[in-house]
Amino acid sequence: MQNFSVDKSGFYGEFGGAYIPEILHRCVTELQDAYLRILESESFKKDFDQLLRDYVGRPSPLYWSGYLSGKHGCSIYLKREDLNHTGAHKINNTVGQILVAKRLGKTRIIAETGAGQHGVATATVCALMQMECIVYMGKTDVERQAVNVKKMQMLGATVVPVTSGNMTLKDATNEAIRDWCCNPTDTHYIIGSTVGPHPYPDMVARLQSVISEEIRKQLMEKENRAVPDYLFACVGGGSNAAGTIYHFLNDDAVKIVLAEAGGKGIDSGETAATIQMGSIGIIHGCKTLVMQTEDGQITEPYSISAGLDYPGIGPIHAHLTTTRRAQVVAVNDDEALKAAFELTRYEGIIPALESAHALAALDKITFKPSDIVVLTLSGRGDKDLETYFKQIDAD
Fold first, then answer.
1. What pLDDT, in 10s, does the model give residues 61-98?
2. In CATH, what class is 57-88+209-394?
3. CA distances from 252 to 31, 110, 266, 370 (A)
4. What CATH number does the domain located at 21-51+90-204 have?
């Protein structure tokens, strides 16, 4: 039996660790030493559970999709993270991390964001706790996610447009880390995905694991069994995917399918298919699969989805892929758009472009009539309406 949990040094197999500048050693070590004690304390569990229930609106529904089930000839359920407060799974993590930050005595919060959902979720909990909030966001994403930028500002956050590199998620993360280096004592960096130096990948996965915890209970109610045959999720950094699969990792009967962003095609030069195209390297404090040149320079990623155009992948997902525990498929822009419009037209649900990648991945698998499939709908499509409208106009 493979071990899919993190070890004491922060590694999942050969991936993970904490590759950080000396100036961050103290605050990262402080977090490493404290996070499990905090997360496992009764006071944290009480506060976290209460906020998830009364503020976020959990549990999120597990919805049987008649359209998808009919199309694919099996039973397909959607885990409706799009119905959470702020419209995505991101709030599960930010609620937990703001509680950790308060217990560590931090007074200032920074974050990076791509699609803006993590930025909005961070700004939301900072407003709730009345803490200073600075969000770094690539200028490209600021322009294509203007509504989320306005939301963050309305919530009291300072949004800093980043103009380096491709001006997307990678570059926003670079700037957030620079800020953290300059303000290591009073600042907590709320990383939005299962990336970064240990303990972030494990901490974020644990906070998001409420998704799979609920899936087990809800499937038992609906199907009289706690375990599905398949789990589907989109994966950029990989937080919603980690939450979806967390409590099923050691059950080999559950097949895991992850959808990464193929962009305009994995051989087009415009893609974010890290697992298909990446090799082992270091990015943002951890060892993982990275899109890079032969001499180790990061390759600029591309995806129509602002939340998936990241040139790395969470170390847990790199490990799951190399051990063949998870199957990863690349979904191109046009396939994701088609899946999004189909779900909208036939189920009345407008999904986020990230979630649409997972929906499109269903077309790449052949199911048996007896199969039970759970797909995490990571977010709603409000933030992507401009992209959808452009596609309608083009058609």
1. 999 999 999 999 999 999 999 999 999 999 999 999 99
2. alpha beta
3. 32, 38, 29, 17
4. 3.40.50.1100
